[in-house]
Amino acid sequence: MPQITVDYSDTLDESFDRRGFALALHPVVVETVAARTPACKTRFRPVRDFTAGDGEADDAIVHVGIGLLPGRTDEAKAALTEAVLALVQQHIKPTDLTLHISAETRDLDASYRKI
């Protein structure tokens, strides 16, 4: 914990600095929601097929989901989500694609386990 998943359009492979994003994100997570750096795990999943709106534009998506153990305030989770949106923009080179960037910070449910 935290479990961080980044779904992103594979058309951003060359313009999205994924490692740089993860390395910048982990300290923000630690500072904002009192996590430990070694506990931060970020995985990236390229998305090949998706449709935004009417499907006419050249769109790309980035969605960051962060799962935390319960106990953080809604305000702390919202602050983390806002920071994530800013970080994503800082780690994507300019592109002609229309970017749809989203993020969510949520509590992991009681079934979460790790070994």
From TrEMBL:
<dbReference type="Pfam" id="PF02962">
    <property type="entry name" value="CHMI"/>
</dbReference>
<keyword id="KW-0413">Isomerase</keyword>
<protein>
    <submittedName>
        <fullName>Isomerase</fullName>
    </submittedName>
</protein>
<dbReference type="InterPro" id="IPR014347">
    <property type="entry name" value="Tautomerase/MIF_sf"/>
</dbReference>
<dbReference type="GO" id="GO:0008704">
    <property type="term" value="F:5-carboxymethyl-2-hydroxymuconate delta-isomerase activity"/>
</dbReference>
<dbReference type="InterPro" id="IPR004220">
    <property type="entry name" value="5-COMe_2-OHmuconate_Isoase"/>
</dbReference>
